[in-house]
Fold this sequence. Notes:
This protein is α+β, with helices and mostly antiparallel strands and 207 residues long. The protein has two domains: 1-32; 40-203, Glutaredoxin (3-Layer(aba) Sandwich). It is 35% helix and 27% strand. It contains five helices and eleven strands. The strands form two sheets. Strands 2, 3, 4, 5, 6, 7, 8, 10 and 11 form a nine-stranded mixed β-sheet that branches. Strands 1-9 form a two-stranded antiparallel sheet. Strand 10 (176-180) and strand 11 (186-191) form a beta hairpin. The radius of gyration is 21 Å and the shape is globular.
Amino acid sequence: MTSRHSAETHRGPLRRAGLVVLVIVGLARAVALAGCGTDTPTAPADIAKPVSAPSPQGPAVTVVALPAEPVEGAQAPDFTVKGLDGKPVRLSDFRGKRVVLNFWATWCSPCRIEIPELQAAYARYGKDGLVVLAIDYAESAERVKQFVQDNGLTFPIGIDDTGYVLMAYQVRGIPTSFFIDRNGLIVQKHLSVLTQAVIERTLARMP
């Protein structure tokens, strides 16, 4: 009787500790997947060399990841993905231009809200060297092409088949956007839906 009572006495604190751990893990996951969650893997902190990953739908996706989370003032990780026409799309090809790098997917409701804002910005500032580069998260080219046609989109779009580009930019939810200046430096990271006011205010910082 004494040993059974002792065991029960020790189990009580253990159960409570386990419950606390579960609550903390649940809250952390909820915060990490704010917006439309992507369930992308966490980028290792020591990645410094180009990483290649085979894609079942086309050429390998290559990306250079930062050793730390991309922040304002940091060099934007370069990458190459497949465009909707099957040709490679490389971020560094747009060096010398201002870039709005947008991570999105057709199934993401907030993404669908901001798409017209991105198209409007591209139509207005594209002649001045602004590039809107939208990176779709792991959808088929056919589905994305249909979405592009239905919404009259004209800016470049690439597909991140493997999630490696999202991993390099440590994207935890979509939509997420990065404003990149003419030198390839990150000026601002924006979480959630972009508006014209945000776009114009940020572009003003990127002459």
